[in-house]
Amino acid sequence: MPPLTTSAITSPEVHTQGRGVTYGALAYVLWGLFPAYWPLLVPAQPIEVLAHRIVWSFVTLAIVVMILRRWRPFLELSGKGWLIVTAAAVLITVNWGTYIYAVNSHHVVESALGYFITPLVSVALGMIFLKERVRLPQTVAIGVVVVAVIVLTVDYGRLPIISLVLGFSFGVYGLLKKKVPLDSITSLTAESAVIAPIALAYLLFLGSANTFTTEGTGHTLLILSTGIVTAVPLVLFGAGAQRIPLITMGMLQYLAPVLQFAWGVFVVHEPMPASRWIGFALVWLALAIFTVDALRNRRKQQLAPVG
């Protein structure tokens, strides 16, 4: 084996992948810090915050699309494509709304659980709806998550509704995204365009109850920033996904719920009795099984003979 040279270490491919990891990590870190951001918009109620996020996200993304000159995909999208985009828009609206409500009502830990289980929800949905073949370790991981949900249901005295809504809404959203022939930016722009008129109508309906102009300049600027806060991680995510393997992005995605969980436990001090720790430990065990299996499967594919 020849020694590694400086030129080898700094080869274009390594440099590109390094930047990809940086972009992907930044995207997930920003998503992980969202629990610190949404409470800043109080006294706006969660549904008002959601409406503003949709409207200003559309404005921000439309500007990005104009700068990048990506209007053609919208014109070429079929009627069926727009139906799928509309369904995706409803699901991402449910996901965003639930998350904003969870953070602003002191359920950060429960929301983090939703994003921890999302990868396994996606596997289960792929198995059910796409007839994808599920390996034994994946089945075991899904089974462990089911047990974890039962444990947490006993702990909470109810189903962890927020976690399940977040996990399944994003899982089904991802399922639909496989059917839309648009990249991440144009796809989210289309989704925002579909739902933005409803969001704008709601804000107009609020009238004087809309906090956009009643809580001072700082609050107005924070409301306006919801568009940028939505767009920046998305752009970083897209840049990272183009440069590094999907499995690497899959590993990075755990950064967001880890940071959300840490915020909930150590910053806002949400209660974590022993039974809740057991439930989360089971989820983390399931993710460990899932991750190790994914890495082993990728290695087998790389070592498999071609042809």
UniProtKB/TrEMBL annotation:
PANTHER family: ACYL-MALONYL CONDENSING ENZYME-RELATED, SOLUTE CARRIER FAMILY 35 MEMBER G2-RELATED. It is found in: Cell membrane. Pfam families: EamA. Keywords: Cell membrane, Membrane, Transmembrane, Transmembrane helix, Transport. This is Protein RarD. It is a multi-pass membrane protein. The chain crosses the membrane at residues 20-38, 50-69, 81-102, 108-129, 136-153, 159-176, 188-209, 221-239, 251-268, 274-295. Belongs to the EamA transporter family. Residues 19-153, 163-290 form the EamA domain. InterPro entries: EamA_dom, EmrE-like, RarD. It comes from the Bacteria. NCBIfam families: rarD.
